[in-house]
Design goal:
117 residues; mainly alpha; 68% helix
Amino acid sequence: MTPEQKAERAQEKAKKRLALQVQMAQQCDPVAAKLMSQLPTISQLPPAQRTQFDQQYEARVNNPTFQSCYNMAFKAYNEQQQLNLAELEWDTDAGWFNNSPFNCEFPRPEGPFWRAC
């Protein structure tokens, strides 16, 4: 993998992470979510506007109510991802992807048309 490809992947990963953070923040405070979405472009602001932006961002994000809501949203997201992974593992273990629906929990049926386990 070339350094350009690595940099491109890192940039895509950062964009996806920011989009997820904005999505979770949107559930708690739309203004904070809007400020979060503007984070990649704050380096282009003049110093006075950047200071004002930093103050607004810190006030919104450091709010204890926002913090607790954001943490709950993050935990809910993680639990949903774990549930999705467990469902996928269950489906895979149950054999739905390899056409063996018995999951090796029962004795193998006899006969020429059975392909369990």
